[in-house]
Structures are given as structure tokens and as C-alpha cells.
Specification:
The protein has 56 residues and is mainly alpha-helical. It starts with 5 loop residues before the first helix and ends in a 5-residue tail after the last helix. It has one domain. The chain has 2 helices and no strands.
């Protein structure tokens, strides 16, 4: 158990989903430079690990 409240979990899931949407959209448009994309991917991984109850 990760110790997250339902509200925290929902907020993190929504943030993770928004990041994934940005990453997918940038694949098609090329809007993000490689460093921005890397930062977003790292944030997505950190949030996903937290939601799974793991430390990033």
C-alpha cells in the first residue's frame, strides 16, 4: 500500500494522464525538444512508481 489518499491518487493519476497526452501529441507535432520530452518522461515514471507503491 502506497499510503495515498483517494484524492491524492486521483490527482496523481490525472497528472500522469495529462503528461502521457502531452507526450503522445508531441510525437505527432514535434513540439517538445528532446530535453523537455526527457523531463516529462521522468516525471511520468516518478508518478507511476508512486501510484504503484514503489519509490522512484
Amino acid at each position: 500500500m502506497s499510503g495515498l489518499t483517494d484524492a491524492e491518487r486521483t490527482r496523481l493519476e490525472q497528472k500522469r494522464d495529462r503528461i502521457m497526452k502531452l507526450l503522445r501529441e508531441s510525437d505527432a507535432s514535434g513540439e517538445l525538444d528532446p530535453e523537455e520530452r526527457k523531463d516529462l518522461a521522468e516525471e511520468w515514471n516518478r508518478i507511476d512508481a508512486e501510484l504503484q507503491g514503489r519509490r522512484p
